[in-house]
């Protein structure tokens, strides 16, 4: 009996030891896309080319925007050279397969963090957040959000889930038309197809600057949406590297660079995520 | 596989709605396109020279401009003229006017392939020109071009996906919506393709039955 117990114990130990050895070996060989991009010497980043001011093509035909500059900042932090980055222009729908099948190292594409999405891609913490506002024609009679909740009002939505939910929650009586691009959504309002459209605050500010016949409703749709960098799930080293870079941008040694980019595109200074570092507003 | 099952069960209601919208748009646009095609070949059959030239010009324009551009022009352009037709109406008009042009060309080829004797035989028994067209020429031409017509109608059904660009929540836009929600692009597009397949194969079956019957009756 005793012998049996001891031998059992021994085999359990042996099994545990073997498991540890195998796991250790596996850990030592764990390949990460981080090594790949470091030896490649440049980043491959998925971005939008049709979402001003985050990623769009300017008059000179160059790809510019907040997300573009953020990607360049990550390249600068990684290689000490902000030009070491190759951009892959992708549509909203192309984001997910490109991240999942390794076409891109990661995406910086004005992408809001939702649980549903986080089941398919890995998100870093948010590198910018923003509220959502309603945009209307300048001559429209709307003053506050409640004015939109009428059956003869059409709200132009993007295909994003939060817009749909928000419209149903805030404007249950209104009609809804859905578009798969911000430009079409915006044009629907501009040309009178719809009376209002939800846009991210920075995007709305940008569009109103370009189109003086449009305005933003003062009252905000109070939701905060977090925008994260996304990548193929399961690569812990790369994810941790990117998440750390983002954390340094929003509240660490890269904050000065980040502030410069933020101010360039949005005209205001960002607040440091470390609240106790922010100077009291005078 | 599990991911697929979870995805389908979760989004089936949305896809069912999209499927109905797509089927509805197709059910409106296909007959409209057919009727329009018949209207377009009348001038040629009636030998109205000027009207025929107009139709030729129209067919050229329709054949050589993308359907999506036509939809945008109708949907975003008409409001500038004070016309606010709904997105479904704009979509159906665009599809019917373009596919009507294609279908009328197909019909024309069928009519031209008929022997001159058919016309002569019709007149010989004292029919008027329009009676010959209605009773002799068109039925025979239709049967001749049924396979080509069927092809074009299947293309028409697939082209309804373009109404997603002007805010109609059809199958395609439902697919895009579910991708945005879930990040599951492959599952969503496979679901979309599957539903289109159901629609077009049903249509194909109906066309097949019509072909067989027509062959039995006139063949």
TrEMBL record, chain A:
<dbReference type="GO" id="GO:0006865">
    <property type="term" value="P:amino acid transport"/>
</dbReference>
<keyword id="KW-0732">Signal</keyword>
<protein>
    <submittedName>
        <fullName>ABC transporter amino acid-binding protein</fullName>
    </submittedName>
</protein>
<feature type="signal peptide">
    <location>
        <begin position="1"/>
        <end position="28"/>
    </location>
</feature>
<dbReference type="Pfam" id="PF00497">
    <property type="entry name" value="SBP_bac_3"/>
</dbReference>
<feature type="domain" description="Solute-binding protein family 3/N-terminal">
    <location>
        <begin position="42"/>
        <end position="269"/>
    </location>
</feature>
<keyword id="KW-0614">Plasmid</keyword>
<dbReference type="GO" id="GO:0030288">
    <property type="term" value="C:outer membrane-bounded periplasmic space"/>
</dbReference>
<dbReference type="InterPro" id="IPR051455">
    <property type="entry name" value="Bact_solute-bind_prot3"/>
</dbReference>
<keyword id="KW-0813">Transport</keyword>
<dbReference type="InterPro" id="IPR001638">
    <property type="entry name" value="Solute-binding_3/MltF_N"/>
</dbReference>
<comment type="similarity">
    <text>Belongs to the bacterial solute-binding protein 3 family.</text>
</comment>
<dbReference type="GO" id="GO:0005576">
    <property type="term" value="C:extracellular region"/>
</dbReference>
UniProtKB/TrEMBL annotation, chain B:
<feature type="transmembrane region" description="Helical">
    <location>
        <begin position="72"/>
        <end position="96"/>
    </location>
</feature>
<dbReference type="GO" id="GO:0043190">
    <property type="term" value="C:ATP-binding cassette (ABC) transporter complex"/>
</dbReference>
<keyword id="KW-0812">Transmembrane</keyword>
<keyword id="KW-1003">Cell membrane</keyword>
<comment type="similarity">
    <text>Belongs to the binding-protein-dependent transport system permease family. HisMQ subfamily.</text>
</comment>
<dbReference type="InterPro" id="IPR010065">
    <property type="entry name" value="AA_ABC_transptr_permease_3TM"/>
</dbReference>
<dbReference type="InterPro" id="IPR043429">
    <property type="entry name" value="ArtM/GltK/GlnP/TcyL/YhdX-like"/>
</dbReference>
<feature type="transmembrane region" description="Helical">
    <location>
        <begin position="20"/>
        <end position="43"/>
    </location>
</feature>
<keyword id="KW-0813">Transport</keyword>
<protein>
    <submittedName>
        <fullName>Cysteine ABC transporter permease</fullName>
    </submittedName>
</protein>
<keyword id="KW-0029">Amino-acid transport</keyword>
<keyword id="KW-1133">Transmembrane helix</keyword>
<feature type="transmembrane region" description="Helical">
    <location>
        <begin position="188"/>
        <end position="210"/>
    </location>
</feature>
<dbReference type="GO" id="GO:0006865">
    <property type="term" value="P:amino acid transport"/>
</dbReference>
<feature type="domain" description="ABC transmembrane type-1">
    <location>
        <begin position="15"/>
        <end position="207"/>
    </location>
</feature>
<dbReference type="InterPro" id="IPR035906">
    <property type="entry name" value="MetI-like_sf"/>
</dbReference>
<keyword id="KW-0472">Membrane</keyword>
<dbReference type="InterPro" id="IPR000515">
    <property type="entry name" value="MetI-like"/>
</dbReference>
<comment type="function">
    <text>Part of the binding-protein-dependent transport system for glutamine; probably responsible for the translocation of the substrate across the membrane.</text>
</comment>
<dbReference type="GO" id="GO:0022857">
    <property type="term" value="F:transmembrane transporter activity"/>
</dbReference>
<dbReference type="Pfam" id="PF00528">
    <property type="entry name" value="BPD_transp_1"/>
</dbReference>
């Amino acid at each position: 009996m005793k012998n049996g117990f001891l031998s059992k114990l021994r085999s359990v130990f042996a099994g545990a030891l073997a498991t540890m050895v195998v796991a250790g070996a596996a850990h030592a060989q764990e390949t990460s896309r981080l090594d790949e991009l470091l030896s490649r010497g440049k980043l491959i980043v998925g971005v939008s080319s049709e979402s001003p001011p985050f990623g769009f093509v300017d008059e000179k035909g160059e790809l510019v925007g907040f997300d573009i500059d953020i990607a360049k900042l990550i390249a600068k932090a990684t290689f000490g050279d902000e030009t070491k980055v190759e951009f892959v222009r992708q549509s909203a729908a192309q984001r997910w397969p490109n991240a999942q099948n390794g076409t891109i190292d990661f995406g910086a594409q004005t992408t809001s963090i939702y649980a549903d999405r986080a089941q398919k891609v890995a998100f870093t913490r948010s590198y910018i957040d923003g509220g959502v506002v309603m945009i209307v024609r300048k001559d429209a009679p709307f003053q506050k959000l409640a004015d939109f909740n009428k059956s003869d009002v059409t709200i132009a939505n993007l295909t994003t889930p939060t817009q749909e939910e928000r419209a149903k929650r805030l404007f249950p009586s209104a009609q809804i038309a859905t578009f798969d691009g911000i430009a079409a959504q915006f044009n629907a309002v501009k040309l009178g197809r719809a009376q209002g459209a939800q846009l991210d605050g920075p995007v709305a500010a940008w569009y109103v600057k370009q189109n003086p016949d449009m305005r933003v409703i003062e009252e905000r749709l109070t939701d905060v949406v977090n925008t994260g960098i996304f990548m193929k799930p399961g690569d812990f080293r790369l994810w941790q590297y990117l998440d750390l870079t983002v954390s340094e941008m929003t509240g660490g040694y890269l904050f000065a660079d980040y502030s410069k980019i933020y101010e360039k595109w949005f005209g205001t200074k960002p607040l440091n995520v470390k609240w106790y570092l922010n100077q009291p507003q005078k | 596989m599990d991911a697929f099952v979870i995805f389908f069960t979760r989004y089936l209601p949305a896809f069912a709605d999209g499927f109905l919208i797509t089927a509805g748009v197709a059910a409106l646009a296909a007959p409209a396109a057919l009727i329009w095609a018949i209207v377009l070949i009348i001038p040629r059959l009636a030998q109205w020279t000027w009207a025929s030239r107009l139709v030729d010009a129209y067919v050229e324009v329709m054949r050589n401009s993308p359907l999506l551009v036509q939809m945008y022009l109708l949907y975003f352009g008409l409001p500038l003229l004070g016309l606010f037709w709904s997105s479904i109406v704009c979509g159906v008009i665009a599809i019917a006017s373009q596919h009507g042009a294609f279908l009328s060309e197909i019909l024309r080829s069928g009519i031209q392939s008929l022997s001159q004797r058919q016309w002569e035989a019709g007149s010989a028994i004292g029919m008027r020109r329009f009676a010959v067209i209605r009773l002799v020429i068109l039925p025979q031409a239709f049967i001749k071009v049924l396979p080509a017509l069927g092809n074009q109608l299947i293309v028409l059904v697939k082209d309804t996906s373009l109404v997603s660009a002007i805010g109609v929540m059809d199958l395609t836009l439902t697919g895009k919506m579910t991708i945005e929600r879930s990040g599951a692009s492959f599952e969503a597009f496979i679901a979309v393709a599957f539903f289109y397949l159901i629609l077009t194969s049903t249509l194909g079956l109906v066309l097949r039955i019509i072909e067989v019957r027509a062959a039995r009756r006139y063949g």
